[in-house]
Amino acid sequence: MRPKKRKIKYYTFLLIPDNERATKSVKLSAALLRTIFIFSVALVVLIIIGVVSYWRWAEVVIDYYALREENTKLKNAMSKIETITDDLERVKKMDQKLRSSLSGYVSVIEQSDADKQSDILEQLDITDGMQSNRSIFNSIPDIYPVDGFTTREFNTYSMLHEAHLGIDIASTKGSPVKATADGVVIFSGWTYEDGNVVILEHMFNFFSFYKHNLRNLCTELEHVKKGQVIALVGDTGLISSGPHLHFEIWRGSVPVNPKLYLRAN
Fold it and tell me: Going by CATH, does the domain composed of 140-260 fall within 3.30.230.10?
């Protein structure tokens, strides 16, 4: 019959220094060692669980703030869209109001540009001489709207930049902006991107645009003369980057290079 194994109650650990000092021994009970081992394993498990839980919580927090930021961006985008929609609706209403108010004064005829010009010349009775010629001359936007220098040219297409449908003229803030020809103010107000804007309608199907104004000095449906101050140079609107006037000339629904009409400044 085999002898029964004796249960280990203690473990002795020898501490042997690398110098000449005496060896030391530490005696620990088996129960204490088991307790330390179990506690260590439990501690490691708890640390792993804590790290995993913290990482998941951190992911939730990161997702929360990302969604919150995205929500803020969406709200800002919706606000911009609503503002732009209001601007477009305002311009649309202004156009309808203009057409109804000027019925009988301005006749809209679907003809070629040559036919339109011929009809207008007949209405003005060119045989009246210099006075009629002066009226025609004053109806073409050909003078610089502001004193300054051109910082950006007309460009309908570019591989690197968006289309630029007018010219930018840098000038001192508050400088007078002049009407480039006789015309009627069809819009005088504020838009989100361009700030304070003035739009004039001239004869021969010309339109001129004056954007980023500090202040508009004319009202809608007002008749203005060539050289009349209609606004002040400013830096208003989202896309403005300094005091300047963005000036455009349109022939009907087509933008044209203002330099083709403007006389030397």
Answer: no
